[in-house]
Write a structure and sequence with these properties.
Oligomer: homodimer
Number of strands of chain A: 16
Strand order of the largest sheet of chain A: 1-2-4-3-5-15-6-14
Helix content of chain A: 25-40%
Strand content of chain A: 15-25%
Number of helices of chain A: 12
Shape of chain A: globular
Distance between the termini of chain A: 43 Å
Largest sheet of chain A: 8 strands, mixed
Largest interface: A-B, 75 and 74 residues
Chain lengths: ~425, ~425
């Protein structure tokens, strides 16, 4: 194990140099050259370790050990793309841990100490982050049938480039049949503070939060910032600023830490210093532990936003977007994590994920195991994101155990996870 | 005159087809292909009417009648560039009226009924609007020495294209010596409602408003819109939304219509739907009839913005930018407009300009005459901008008279305009 863990750390810290930013983050948005270089590293590593590489029509990349000809595959992975000025752990940790866990399992198969029932594939899902091409969790959602392939390939970034063009540009628009899945496992940084606060190294994710986005389109009237008197204006940006504050303020109606809200994206038209803005498009994000809280917050916002529209004599259209129901991960998977942790002498804790992950759509089609390791300070989606080597290695050890159990068929009789209120 | 006016209207409505937008506006931002096509039309028209065309190092284009070899030039003109989805009158009206006024003056010179003291040049200033390349009033400011040529040529648009590259791309990076000016005249739409309200066809502009911009740089911290609890966030967009509202609210401290304020431009980083914004850059615009009101509003804003920064534990830097002192236009020029109007049987009215114009920097170096014609509803910098043919023709007739008087040397002993408090 000592060599394996050293190799893992070397590989992890090498991949962090691809698209590295000055403050220890990475910039590897989906379909950019930096993302392409990280994926080339993935392919090279897999081939060097005897894995066959397949790329599907939405750019998901699979590295396969086909031990049992014709059998289904346990999938294990995460994503190598990042947010703009993102962290080096988010996604990449899970992919590199999956490669090492798979190679370890293969070594046991080769030396005859492990007899698998299923095959094993490491997967690097395309565009989990959704910064350049919304929505997020794109590749895994197409894989599971939750999103339509042609619609996704035609999706454009703000510069007008399509997903299809971006995939072609990095050589990742594949034609391979993806492996047929029987189970899925993923390890990821927590991106919150609970494990750190409780001093527990392993989180067993039992359910996801209910999330949804609102696309808000504010239509005012373009005019001159100098010559137009204030009372004649219908300033779309002033109305949008009110919406941004309403989105933040709505959480005050709920108990602390039970709901979060934000506006992450906002475009102004024409965005000229001497023109009163005509139009603003913004995306609000609502997430709560309970679905009813998201729905209540949405209702409050729709009402208050229309009050702003009426007061300003401006049109504001609001559309629901990217609604994601609460998902429960299977009880048997949680028990598998807890048992593996006990055997490894590690404490574990059940917790919920406020962030979306590739494991959420996978959980709809196959029994899925999702594990977290601690994030220092809970910070994420930024360069300051940090997890210690020790915590990463504990997560890797857990993933190795879980992969072996899944490949033995331990969750074969378990139903996939379900949406719940 | 009948033929001249018909030709003028035909030319005006033809130029409005260059870069025409669906709702009767134009999109001819500085240095774009559409702007280039409007300038090709200008060059062709000038050459067809016996004028020599010169282009200077910042793309200002001059069409010259050199009646008196070696004499200085009266300049008359405006600009052919537009705001994004801008109006078809703003700038283009003044350029086309200037061409027709010049051709009319030349006809009189040729038939011997008018003996000029000075030469005459029609000018199409580069980038008056400043939407793509801030600051506005760029070409005329370089011409008068108020802005530095090399700095301006190196200025980039949001896509990274420089002014120099944009000028080259439309064939307007010239090397010609510009004509030496002795006086300047311009006619422009009012972009406000005063002439319409008072039912007066001609405005004699006596002074400009004091204006300045504030560059506001909000620096928060990037984090995850799902996983980061609300109390851990330092959301730059929420703080920026507060700034946008403060900028609007500050006018309430002053008498109605004595000051205007707005935020026309705002950029969010990283602008991803699932990332709490790290950084916002915005431009606030303050304009008032009295300089002290701009300074007071600025002080109030600086204080309140720092209150927001402290409350949010966010850094907000504010820098002064594009400060423009009040300019008085010479009394003798105002009297010339009033006398010409009386002779033409037209009413005129003295008024101030809240908008900047190329005439403002010109007024610092030569005696300058600035005239307005009415704008329906006062709307401007949008597709709905409108001025009637009748009002445009009245302005053209006035410009023809003013150009003749200036070419006779009527304002030769007048000092240029001055800044004032």
């Amino acid at each position: 194990m000592a060599t394996t863990t050293l190799n893992f750390l070397a590989d992890f810290h090498h991949v962090a140099t691809i698209g590295a930013t000055p403050d220890h983050g990475v910039e590897r948005q989906a379909g950019t050259p930096e993302h392409g270089r990280a994926r080339e590293w993935f392919r090279g590593w897999a081939e060097d370790h005897g894995m066959a590489v397949r790329v599907d029509a939405v750019g998901n990349t699979f590295a396969l050990y086909e031990w049992v000809p014709g059998a289904d595959f346990v999938l294990v992975g995460s994503h190598l793309d990042s947010q703009p000025l993102g962290g080096r752990f988010d996604g990449a940790y899970g992919v590199i841990a999956a490669l090492h866990a798979a190679a370890e399992a293969d070594a046991r198969v080769q030396e005859g100490t492990f007899v698998p029932k299923h095959n094993l594939a490491v997967v690097d899902w395309f565009n989990e982050e959704g910064a350049r091409f919304p929505p997020s969790i794109m590749g895994s959602s197409v894989f599971t049938g939750a999103m339509d392939l042609e619609t996704i390939l035609a999706t454009r970034d703000p510069q007008g480039t399509t997903v299809r063009e971006a995939l072609e540009s990095i050589g990742c628009l594949g034609r391979d049949e993806p492996p047929r899945p029987v189970a899925y496992a993923e390890v990821h940084i927590e991106q919150g503070r609970i494990l750190e606060r409780e001093r527990v190294p392993i989180g067993a994710v039992d359910r996801s939060w209910h999330t949804q986005k609102l696309l808000v389109h504010v239509q005012g009237e373009q005019s001159h910032t100098g010559a137009t008197i204030m009372s004649d204006r219908h300033d779309a940006l002033v109305a949008a600023a009110r919406v941004v504050l309403l989105v933040e303020q709505v959480v005050a109606e709920f108990p602390p830490e039970s709901i979060v809200s934000s506006v992450g994206q906002l475009f102004v038209e024409p965005n000229s210093p001497i023109v009163v803005p005509r139009e603003v498009r913004l995306v609000a994000d609502l997430r709560a532990e309970r679905k009813e809280d998201v729905l209540t917050a949405r209702e409050i916002l729709l009402r208050r936003i229309q009050d702003v529209a009426a007061e300003r004599e401006i049109r504001i259209d609001v559309a629901d977007f990217d609604v994601r129901e609460i998902q429960r991960f299977p009880e048997e998977g949680l028990e598998l994590v807890e048992k593996s942790a006990r055997e490894a002498g590690l404490e574990s804790l059940r917790l919920r994920t406020m962030a979306g992950h590739d494991s959420v759509p996978l959980n709809r089609i196959v029994p899925t195991v999702m594990m977290f390791v601690p994030s220092v300070g809970g910070v994420s989606h930024c360069e300051r994101e940090f997890t210690t080597d020790e915590d990463m290695l504990a997560g890797l050890a857990m993933l190795q155990q879980v992969v072996l159990k899944l490949a033995e068929g331990q969750l074969d009789d378990v139903r996939p996870g379900e949406a719940t209120a």
